[in-house]
Amino acid sequence: MKILVLVARRMLAVLDWPLLILLVVMALVGMATMHSAVGNTDWRFADQLRNFLIAFAVMWAVALMRPGLIMKSAPYFYVGGVALLLAVTLFGVTSKGATRWLDLGFGRIQPSEMMKIAVPLMLAWYFQRQASTRFRLRDFLLASALLLVPAGLIIEQPDLGTALLVLASGFCVIYFAGFPFKLLVPVVLVAAVSLGTLVSYEDQICQPDVDWVVLHDYQKYRVCVLLNPGSDPLGKGFHTIQSMIAVGSGGVYGKGYMQGTQTHLDFIPERTTDFIFAVFAEEFGLYGGVTLLFLYALIVLRGLTITVRAPTQFGRLLGGAMSMMMFVYVFVNIGMVTGVLPVVGVPLPFMSYGGTALMTLGIACGLLMSIGAHQPKTRSD
């Protein structure tokens, strides 16, 4: 009996209760919003509930793992993920113009999803193994190569949304490791000039016969529709226009739970996945939207609090990347729903329907809890 009590205490001890409480609150908000969004597809509500239970179980399992064991598995996880991405390139299943899945016979997997975790894991492992407090330029160049290889394979599928998240999480590790800020200034300047040129010469460069070279035609089209949604109100611009109408029609106080007209009259596209924030904002208004953002901010801040208390460089780099990954999820999703960013298919954390995204978030939160709960036994941990 004493053994069972000790095992139970150990299993509970790894849980970070402030973070867990925030995640439970987010899960309840997400399920309530899903109930309103599903309409006649009640099976999605039941599936999402199952997805949450699986994600929390995975989170707990990862939290029980020691950071030393996680670090040792990082290279294998990364190499396996890159190998699967190459397999997708050679033997992948194509659906709706994208080759993102690998058929294993008993089911399909999307290897790009695992790279959201594998890439920051690998980079944190790499910088930890250098055992240096001041890295040289070649260290950052090699780390950039480790990041760009899987990101390039994902962009080739094409899957710009997932590639963006992989790049963001990996870049956070490199930046937190001490990447010189002065080297970012030219990149920021180039981005600012490119954006200014895009806005100023929209009419000319958005013509059908203009090739953007670095982007596929559908990606170019999304950017051009973002600049002027009215150019294709019944096509690509329909998503952005309808979601902006829904968000705006919610006003300050919202229309009330289950009272969203844009939602229940089927005007909001993909209302259970990418555009679920439009459902929430229409029913709960500005106050509800600000409250939701506040909850997300608390989750990110709790993750960063765990990060700064981590006893190892590996823990600090990985924890920072996992926290900022959730921030990027929220920023990109709400940006595309409100018409600030192009539609790239990034889900809203703990709100959008989907088992894979919830699994990724569960692993990320489990890693944070593992970092916070375990003290390393040796320096290599």
Molecular structure report:
The chain is mostly helical and 381 residues long. The protein has one domain. The protein is 69% helix and 3% strand. It has a 3-stranded antiparallel beta sheet, covered by helices on one side. α3 runs parallel beside α15 (355-373), α5 packs parallel to α7 (160-176) and α7 runs antiparallel to α14. The two termini are 32 Å apart. The model is unreliable at 377-381 (pLDDT under 50).
Spell out the blueprint of helices and strands.
Blueprint (H helix, E strand, L loop, with lengths): L1 H12 L3 H21 L4 H23 L2 H25 L1 E3 L2 E6 L4 E2 L1 H20 L6 H19 L4 H17 L7 H17 L1 H4 L11 H11 L8 H14 L11 H4 L11 H33 L4 H25 L17 H19 L8
Antiparallel strand pairs: 1-2, 2-3
Helix pairs in contact: 2-3, 2-13, 3-15, 4-5, 4-6, 5-6, 5-7, 5-14, 5-15, 6-7, 7-14, 11-13, 13-14, 14-15
Core attributes:
381 residues; mainly alpha; three-stranded antiparallel sheet; 69% helix; 3% strand; disordered C terminus
Distance between the termini: 32 Å
Could you spell the SSE succession in H and E letters?
HHHHEEEHHHHHHHHHHH
- Structural Rg: 22 Å
The parts where pLDDT drops under 50 for at least 5 residues are: 377-381
How much helix, percentage-wise, in residues? 55-70%
Q: Quick check: average pLDDT?
A: 84
Largest sheet at a glance? 3 strands, antiparallel
Structural class based on helices, strands and sheet pairing: mainly alpha
How many helices does DSSP assign? 15
Total domain units: 1
Strand content: under 5%
Shape: globular
Which sequence of strands runs across the widest sheet?
1-2-3
Count of extended strands: 3
